[in-house]
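Task 17 of the worksheet. Students: predict the tertiary structure of the chain below and write it out as structure tokens. Keep your answer in the requested format; marks are given for formatting as well as content.
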Amino acid sequence: MRYRAVVLDVDGVLTNFRSAWKRIHDILGIDADLNRALYERGYIDYIDWAAADVALWRGVPRYVVEAPFRPREGFDQLCDVLRRSGAVAVAVSAGVGYTRRLSGCFAEFYVNDIIYDGDLVAGIAVEVTNANKAEVAAKALARYGASLDESIAVGDSETDLPLLESAGFSIAFNPTSRRVEEAADVVLRSQRLHVLAKYLSSLLLR
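Model answer:
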């Protein structure tokens, strides 16, 4: 089958950190475990959880929450494969907007953007939740005349399950749970993206 698109998660796949949220908490020395517990016990939904977490950052300067980071080694090679394949490349992340610095090799990049008052954190605009990645990706692909069943999806966490289960072919990259492994057609494990780039090349450029 000729795959027309690739949809990738960001946190934990393209980045060495599993969560763009936790990375900021760690930089600021913030304990956000209470917010997570409230979400996991059903007291708040994902949007409220995001708002509660960002409330802990309120007033923090932009340069702090957008502190530079490096993608996983092999990111440039991955981007090269995506470009040469001609496939529509879409990134869908339930993380935070500072990861947009990786958007250069994607036709579309969806993430939750921080709202600033001047240069200080004021809130969050949530577009991607822990449950709507497949919906967000499907709408993006439709603009290019493609669908999820014509796509390869790459993810690592249970947030990616709807996407992995809807795609024509799915790859679990360093999966965080057995459920993610079982939802994927292939499981890849590596600290570098060269492995993923090589596998996608075999699917897209053959």
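Marker's comment: The first helix runs from residue 20 to 28. The chain has one domain: 5-21+67-204.
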